């Protein structure tokens, strides 16, 4: 199973579209966005991807509250399952405890991944290239015995995504 993970698009729908298309090209079957979409165009991109997706409201998403019935946008922390894997999704990193198999968060605009006591923690970084000139996203591959996290990043002035890979043996 392959899951594309994004966060902090802000008003950069062109970067969001680029990242979604890249993740789909790499085989993503699901999309998870950890908030701060800021504009409806970013929600439309998730919906139009034709992939199953979920997102949460970020601290800059007040203007999107009225759209919660139209799009799959939830209040944080949001718990859900894909197959037999339990996820917790949030924007603000306030609920970083190991009460799920995978915890996904955003807000800091910094890529992070770690595996502690049977829980995988992921922050995919930022789409918006606000803190640094990088568009960032993650492809999470879940296999029977391992997690493979591929961190993709692209300088806004270049054409290609670069990548780093992290592997953790599942407990």
Automatic annotation (TrEMBL):
Enzyme class: hydrolase
Residue intervals of the Calcineurin-like phosphoesterase domain: 1-144
Record has Amino-acid biosynthesis as a keyword: no
Domain of life: Bacteria
Pfam families attached to this UniProt entry: Metallophos_2
UniProt xrefs under InterPro entries: Calcineurin-like_PHP_lpxH, Metallo-depent_PP-like, MetalloPDE_YfcE-like, Phosphodiesterase_MJ0936/Vps29
Keyword Ribosomal protein: no
Keyword entries, A-Z: Metal-binding
E.C. no: 3.1.4.-
Molecular functions (GO terms): hydrolase activity; metal ion binding
UniProt xrefs under Gene3D superfamilies: 3.60.21.10
Family classification: Belongs to the metallophosphoesterase superfamily. YfcE family.
NCBIfam families: yfcE
UniProt xrefs under PANTHER family: METALLOPHOSPHOESTERASE (PTHR43165), PHOSPHODIESTERASE MJ0936 (PTHR43165:SF1)
Protein name according to UniProt: Phosphoesterase
Lineage, opening ranks: Bacteria, Pseudomonadati, Campylobacterota, Epsilonproteobacteria, Campylobacterales
């Amino acid at each position: 199973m392959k899951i594309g993970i994004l966060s902090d698009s802000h008003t950069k729908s062109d970067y969001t579209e680029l990242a979604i298309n890249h993740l789909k090209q790499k085989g993503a079957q699901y999309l998870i966005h950890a908030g701060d979409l800021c504009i409806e165009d970013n929600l439309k991109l998730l919906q139009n991807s034709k992939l199953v997706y979920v997102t949460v409201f970020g601290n800059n998403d007040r203007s999107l509250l009225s759209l919660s019935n139209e799009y799959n946008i939830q209040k944080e922390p949001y718990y859900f399952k894909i197959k037999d894997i339990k996820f917790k999704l949030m924007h603000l990193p306030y609920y970083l405890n190991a009460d799920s198999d995978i915890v996904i968060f955003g807000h800091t605009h910094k890529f992070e991944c770690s595996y502690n006591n049977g829980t995988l923690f992921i922050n995919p970084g930022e789409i918006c290239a606000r803190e640094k000139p990088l568009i960032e996203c993650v492809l999470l591959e879940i296999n029977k015995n391992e997690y493979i996290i591929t961190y993709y990043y692209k300088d806004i002035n270049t054409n290609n995504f670069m990548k780093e890979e992290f592997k953790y043996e599942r407990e």
